[in-house]
Amino acid sequence: MLAFITSIADNRDRRRRGTRLSGEQGYWQRWLRPRLGRRRFLAALGATGAAVALSACGSSSNASPTATAGETLLATPEDTTSTAKQGGVLRSVLVADVPSFDPHSAASTAVHTQVAAYTYPRLFKFATAHYPDRPRGNLDGDLAEAYELSGDKMQITLRLRQGLKWDAKAPVNGRAIDAQDVVASWQRFAKLSPFRGEMLYEASTAPGAPIDSVTSPDSRTVVVKLKQPDAGLLALFASDRLFYVLPREADAGFDPRVEQRGYGPYRLGDNRPGAFRSWQRNPDYFVKGRPFIDTIEQPIIGDYASRLAQFKAGSIYTSVASQGDIINVRKELPRLRLTRGDNFATAPSSLAFGYEGDSPWKDERLRQAVSMLIDRETMVNVYTNRARFEDEGIEVEVRYHTAVGAGWEGWWLDPLNEAAFGPSAQYFKHAPDEAAKLIAAAGFPDGLDSTFHYNGGGQYGAIYARTVEMLSGMLAPAGIRLRLEPHDYNDWLPNYHFAYTGAQSLGKPIKGFNGLIYRVGNTSPSVSSQLLAQFHKDGIRFEGMSPDGRNAQAGDPQVNDAVTAIRREFDVKRQQELAQDFARLMARKAYVIPNLPFSTTGFALTWPALANYGVYRSWPTGAAVAEANLNLWINTAAPPITPA
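The structure corresponding to this sequence follows.
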């Protein structure tokens, strides 16, 4: 097993070994200050600061060093399940309402994570890990209780759990959930879902997707036939962002956009669109004795200052403080618990390249130079408020993304571990002098001019645009002079973001697209599905790449073959080895450079009344409400319910 957690001393030693230059760090601090102050920058990252905007959260195996002789600000999650009590109200919060309740037709993943996960089953769900361990993508049954994979890996037969019933409202009237519900939901998903290309094979739009058909020979059995073997298939069925099972009466008997007839850990209670939503515990949920909490209340509060004020007053128990505020709030209210989260991010945003015409980026030496010009450590400092935490003796855990995102526990390989990662580790170091040599060797001793394309429509938030400026500034000292080119979203999406995605019927490479592009990626539920979507020519979010600078829609045959091998490898240990080889390969070819190039574990600040927080931990693309959060309980003897 790889040692993923590094000590404070090891991390500080890395920084001493030249991953940043003090003079350049000062330059970047001066550059950022007049444009976006550190505090405003961090506050803009939202509810849990960098943990939300940059990564999923994670945790270390030990509490951090103490801030004072007798106290540490960072608490160790405590398992209190043995004393847990049924009942209570969890006072949470939502930043915005969802546009619909229907997980099949919605384009917003918030519909899945904030609504469907509470009240509709998936076929599988991800197993939780127990602190201090991190989850590794193992599966538990949800609606399915058993499965059988055929010898040729081209068919999966599922046996459904018995005794589960839809809620008592018409038109389902508490009837048993059966295989016909699964088939009807699949047909509806295949017709309506903007995300169907992750799962449903279609020759023209999703040739890499695995599923050919879903049928049911009887009320308890579901048969999934595949177009191609895929070791990540079951994880697709466990994702909190893809396939949920609804009653077959959806559309004909009720409108799933505004109503629910579900079966999950919770059922919809009071719903006031734009203002408030609540959930009531499902007493018939199949996990015995779970969930503990009877009611979840979620007022919708869009303003950060208002959310923070409500949190400080004890009206919200869950974490809302940004990384910029979290230490000060914890010191102001010592009764609060400061903990790390669950995971690192699995899908970083990325820098990719255009290959049309006389594009200089056909030369991999220039792409490698770009990677070596990114000052990852300074970006960590800017985005995470690291110095503030380290002043309190709290380590901000950081991993550098490779082509295999930092959150893929067991698959990710640390690129700063040169002995393990090999020669490609050099491309993760901030090495401007070496980058300049590569640029000169590629035929540009005086530097080069290019264009930096990005979405200027505001859909990705203010931090996205600021990062474009930051990256442009980091490349400039080595002579890479970028002209910033913002695009309207309706132009950006088909002609830039999906420019090389041949499987999408959204557009094609535009004439002259030969610069850099800053893309924001979506996460998939497994390593194999993530790599397919992003790096294989048949992927639904293919970035575009070419070994000879021609026909970038066809990809690099070596990369295509490597992704296919990972997808078809059902032995987990061997698949992990192949994924690590893939990370080394992609670091050398530098077709896609992860950006933001790091992930941090982030921190959460909660009231002690929310017991068991941080103990049971979900896979990054799991549904916490039906996995880890089943074990949360309300301790009415703890603050803010009962003063300490």
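The first strand starts at residue 89 and ends at 91.
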